């Protein structure tokens, strides 16, 4: 396949393929920034390079450290250059619309919106150790705040990472509250905070009353000793089930790996097969704490969320 990608945003984007990136484990929505930038092996203007767009939560370097090994694996399996294209929340929509990518790997909320608007094809769903192909949202408050149920969130200062686009760090919780009769207009304030670590710390410090974070975020901070104890926090409306991490909201499907509508069908099949064949112990999965990919699961709950909250693509 010969690709002729648009170069109009390459000056703004770091576009990389990691051929030997060493990575540290981190959660999908909180990534550790690498000390040294990865080797730039292929860029989207390389003739013949397959372009995989990935949602970069913090930075292009961090995204390369986290997802680069999966790109490296695909390159080895396919035998052709594969370029990793880190993109911001809005940039991924622009890149898909402009057909500057062949594949996209993003959080399930953005991915479902892209599918509704641009008919991308979900090939496989990431599966993680302990939690499989599902995750959830958590609503946290200080243990001494008196906030225990959805109703208690009214008239409180609330923080999330991205009001319009975040999945487990915002809109899962917004949907949960909506289902309990609470609208975001009833918050005393609704603030975007730069990271989920900072959301937790802002709740502990009293800067915010309530925080929205992804399931597993508190445990990650404990493991990294960013958080020393959970005793000062309470999980609002904690679900009573056997999911690995304590959580608030219903479970939603994990990140899907998708192909753009006009990507070559033979290439799509090859990439799908390669992802599904990825061994659970392959080091390419270590940075995302994964144990493989499974055939794309049912994303209808995300479609329902997009429509109910009237997010981008809700009327598509």
In summary, what is this structure?
The chain is of the alpha/beta class and about 325 residues long. It is built from 8 helices and 13 strands. It has 2 domains: about 1-135 and about 255-315, 3-Layer(aba) Sandwich (D-Maltodextrin-Binding Protein, domain 2); about 135-235, 3-Layer(aba) Sandwich (D-Maltodextrin-Binding Protein, domain 2).
Report on the structure:
The protein is of the alpha/beta class. The chain folds into 2 domains: 1-133 and 254-316, Periplasmic binding protein-like II (D-Maltodextrin-Binding Protein, domain 2), CATH 3.40.190; 135-235, 3-Layer(aba) Sandwich (D-Maltodextrin-Binding Protein, domain 2). Helices cover 29% and strands 19% of the residues. The chain has 8 helices and 13 strands. It has a 6-stranded mixed β-sheet with strand order 2-1-3-12-4-13, sandwiched between helices. Strands 8-7-9-6-10 form a 5-stranded mixed β-sheet. It has a two-stranded antiparallel ribbon with strand order 5-11. Helix 1 links the parallel strand 1 (50-55) and strand 2. Residues 1-44 have low confidence and may be disordered.
- The DSSP helix count reads 8
Contiguous runs where pLDDT drops below 50 for at least 5 residues: 1-44
In angstroms, what separates the terminal alpha carbons? 31 Å
- Strand count, sense and closure of the main sheet? 6 strands, mixed
CATH architecture of the largest domain: 3-Layer(aba) Sandwich
Nearest-integer average pLDDT: 87
Q: Identify the strand order in the major beta sheet.
A: 2-1-3-12-4-13
The sequence of SSEs as H and E is EHEHEHEEEEHEHEHEEEHEH
Number of strands: 13
Query: What portion of residues is helical?
Result: 25-40%
CATH-assigned homologous superfamily of the largest domain? Periplasmic binding protein-like II
CATH class of the largest domain: Alpha Beta
Report the structural category. alpha/beta
Number of domains: 2
Label the overall shape: globular
CATH topology of the largest domain: D-Maltodextrin-Binding Protein, domain 2
Q: Radius of gyration in whole Å, from Cα?
A: 19 Å
Strand percentage = 15-25%
């Amino acid at each position: 396949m010969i690709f002729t990608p648009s170069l109009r945003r390459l000056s703004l984007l770091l576009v990389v393929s990691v051929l030997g990136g060493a990575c540290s484990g981190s959660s999908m929505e909180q990534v550790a920034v690498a000390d040294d930038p990865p080797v730039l092996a292929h860029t989207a203007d390389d003739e013949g390079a397959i372009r995989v767009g990935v949602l970069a939560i913090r930075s292009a370097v961090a995204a390369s450290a986290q997802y680069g090994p999966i790109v490296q694996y695909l390159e080895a399996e396919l035998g052709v250059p594969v370029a990793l294209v880190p993109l911001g929340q809005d940039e991924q929509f622009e890149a898909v619309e402009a057909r500057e990518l062949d594949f996209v790997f993003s959080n399930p909320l953005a991915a479902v919106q892209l599918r509704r608007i641009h008919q991308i094809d979900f090939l496989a769903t990431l599966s993680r150790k302990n939690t499989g192909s599902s995750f959830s949202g958590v609503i946290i408050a200080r243990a001494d705040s008196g906030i225990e149920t959805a109703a208690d969130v009214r008239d409180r200062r609330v923080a999330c990472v991205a009001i319009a686009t975040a999945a487990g760090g915002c809109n899962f919780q917004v949907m949960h509250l909506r289902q309990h009769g609470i609208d975001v207009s009833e918050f005393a304030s609704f603030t975007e905070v730069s990271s989920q670590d900072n959301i937790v710390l802002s709740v502990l410090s009293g800067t915010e009353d309530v925080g929205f974070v992804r399931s597993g975020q508190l445990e990650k901070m404990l493991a990294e000793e960013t958080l020393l104890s959970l005793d000062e926090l309470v999980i609002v409306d904690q679900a009573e089930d056997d999911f690995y991490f304590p959580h608030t909201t219903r479970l939603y499907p994990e990140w899907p790996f998708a192909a753009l509508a006009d990507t070559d069908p033979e290439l799509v099949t090859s990439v799908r097969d390669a992802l599904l064949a990825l061994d659970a112990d392959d080091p390419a999965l270590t940075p995302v704490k994964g144990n493989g990919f499974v055939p794309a699961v049912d994303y209808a709950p995300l479609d329902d969320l997009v429509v109910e909250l009237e997010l981008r693509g809700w009327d598509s």
